[in-house]
Design a protein that fits this description.
This protein is mainly α. The protein contains three helices and no strands.
Length: about 90
């Protein structure tokens, strides 16, 4: 009974930590003059896109677990992409 809630809490906590890593990397790049206008635009557009995806998931009967998994997938992609940048 409690296992799904514990899993959701764990995944949400991991999402928060992973998101902070992306935010730190982006802000560090901007502060060092390595940020680009395209990256700044991407920060905004991907949030709108992810919100739309989450809303569609919920509208189609998806669960909070599925929404968190989707957000984590996007965040992990950002981590990989930002690590490749010089």
């Amino acid at each position: 009974m409690f296992l799904p809630w514990i899993k959701l809490a764990t995944d949400t906590s991991l999402l928060a930590m992973e998101s902070q890593s992306v935010i730190m990397t982006r802000l560090t790049q901007i502060a060092m003059g390595q940020g680009s206008p395209a990256e700044a635009m991407l920060m905004v557009t991907e949030k709108v896109s992810a919100f739309g995806e989450a809303a569609a998931t919920i509208a189609m009967g998806g669960s909070a677990h599925k929404v968190v998994r989707g957000y984590r997938r996007h965040v992990k992609a950002n981590v990989r992409r930002l690590k490749r940048k010089p």
